[in-house]
């Protein structure tokens, strides 16, 4: 069973993810990423989709032209878990901010 992060672990994890915001209402993290155009945004989403399948952990996201909004939370845990932190780090690495 996957467990939600406790307050200490959440605080430490978020300190290492400066581009992500904590959504307290959903106990999730969010990030908006802006690309040069739609093709670049879609290419990013394709890369994340492949990682998400391997991790069996899928983001909530939306795309409008060159913008991708990502929300990560673990529904089975009822909030933010280590899986979300791992996914955020993988996303940052794709964007080049690892």
Write the layout of secondary structure elements.
Elements: H1 7-15, E1 21-23, E2 28-34, H2 38-55, E3 60-64, E4 67-72, H3 82-95
Antiparallel strand pairs: 1-2, 2-4, 3-4
Give descriptors for this structure.
98 residues, Gyrase A, domain 2, four-stranded antiparallel β-sheet, 4 strands, 4-alpha-hydroxytetrahydrobiopterin dehydratase activity, lyase, Pterin_deHydtase, EC 4.2.1.96
Commentary on this structure:
With 98 residues, this protein is an alpha+beta fold. The chain has one domain (7-95): Transcriptional coactivator/pterin dehydratase (Gyrase A, domain 2, 2-Layer Sandwich), CATH 3.30.1360. It has helices spanning 7-15, 38-55, 82-95, and strands at 21-23, 28-34, 60-64, 67-72. Strands 1-2-4-3 form a 4-stranded antiparallel beta sheet, covered by helices on one side. The longest helix is centred in the middle third of the chain and has 18 residues, at 38-55. It starts with 6 loop residues before the first helix and ends with a helix.
Structural class: alpha+beta
* Low-pLDDT windows of residues: none
CATH class: Alpha Beta
H/E topology pattern: HEEHEEH
Second-tier CATH architecture: 2-Layer Sandwich
What fraction of the residues are assigned to beta strands by DSSP? 15-25%
Rg over CA atoms: 13 Å
Q: What count of domains describes the coordinates?
A: 1
Family: Belongs to the pterin-4-alpha-carbinolamine dehydratase family.
Protein name: Putative pterin-4-alpha-carbinolamine dehydratase
GO molecular function, one term: 4-alpha-hydroxytetrahydrobiopterin dehydratase activity
Organism: Sphingomonas rubra
């Amino acid at each position: 069973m996957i467990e939600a992060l406790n307050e200490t672990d959440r605080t430490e994890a978020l300190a290492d993810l400066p581009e992500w915001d904590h959504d307290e209402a959903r106990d999730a993290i969010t990030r908006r990423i802006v690309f040069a155009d739609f093709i670049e945004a879609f290419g990013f989403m394709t890369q994340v989709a492949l990682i998400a399948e391997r991790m069996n952990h899928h983001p909530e996201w939306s795309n409008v032209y060159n913008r991708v909004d990502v929300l990560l939370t673990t529904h089975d845990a009822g909030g933010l878990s280590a899986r979300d932190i791992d996914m955020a780090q993988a996303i940052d690495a794709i964007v080049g901010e690892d």
